[in-house]
Design a protein that fits this description.
The protein is an alpha+beta fold. Helix content is 39%, strand content 22%.
């Protein structure tokens, strides 16, 4: 994560200069599209600059300061997320020592995160079951302040409801292109889900400490905490789904660093 290390140690203007220099030298794919995300990053960082304690929440996986790379190779995805995290940290003016310390908090932290989720397995199952039953959902993500939420690619931030349109080359979400909705309910009608169902799911997730629920081919990820390619949660395998394996690289470039069986169809996992 050398590019991330460079950016987090520098003011935003110098961080962006470092990105431009790297583009000129190596020309990795996608940095031109990533630069179009910067206005969104700056806007989303306003609350963090006012209250630095919001940083760990707004940078959660699938949150407003996260980045998905849906196209390209795992290596390209990893590089773009590193750049993105560096730009976000610089724009939010987060002290270098506070950027990752809440996640990389010592050898006991993974155990504590596992215990927290496993001890509430009944409630986590309930949230996953509710999510699974809502067929129009692929992602639901929550963060702070309460009330803001992401449903699929639609972000409710403050009073604004906008849908991120994936960038053409790398499939970046968020991207520099947005589709505006009058409210969250208007979008939800297109996938035949009531807003009350989403709000109930939001409450279930907050009660148990989940930040995101994500549907994929192998099953459902119930994410606790994380940032960038670092993620901690429970993986609920569907019947016939391929379970996570330590060392396996995911399509998004993250790698399973820890996998422990919780039950026949559930694994605790962490990625990096």
């Amino acid at each position: 994560m050398t590019r991330l290390a460079i950016c987090i140690a520098l003011p935003l203007s110098i961080c962006l200069l470092a990105v431009r220099i790297d583009v000129a030298l190596a020309q990795p794919r996608g940095l031109d599209e990533l630069k179009k995300v910067i206005p969104h990053i700056k806007t989303t960082c306003r609350l963090v600059r006012e209250d630095p304690g919001l940083w760990p929440f707004r940078v959660l996986p699938f949150g407003p300061l996260s980045l998905e790379v849906r196209k390209g190779t795992p290596t390209e995805a990893d590089a773009l997320r590193n750049y993105h995290m560096g730009i976000a940290a610089a724009s939010c003016e987060v002290p270098k020592e506070a950027i990752t310390s809440y996640f990389f908090c010592g050898p006991e932290c993974p155990k504590s995160r596992r215990t927290h989720l496993v001890n509430q397995l009944t409630q986590v199952r309930a949230a996953v079951s509710r999510f699974r039953s809502l067929q129009g959902l692929n992602v639901v993500s929550i963060w702070a302040p309460r009330g803001e939420i992401r449903v699929n690619d639609v972000f409710l931030l403050g009073k604004t409801v906008e849908e991120a349109v994936p960038s053409p080359a790398m499939g970046l979400v968020p991207s520099g292109t947005w589709r505006t909705w009058p409210n969250l309910a208007a979008y939800l009608t297109t996938i035949r889900i009531k807003e009350s169902a989403i709000r109930d799911l939001d409450s279930l997730m907050r009660d148990v400490g989940l930040s995101a629920l994500v549907r994929e081919e192998a099953g459902i990820r119930a994410i606790g905490v994380g940032f960038s390619d670092n993620e901690s949660g429970l993986f609920f395998l569907r019947k016939g789904g391929v379970e996570p394996v330590v060392g396996k690289i995911r399509p998004d470039g993250s790698r399973y660093q820890l996998v422990e069986k919780v039950s026949k169809d559930i694994c605790f996992y962490e990625t990096t």
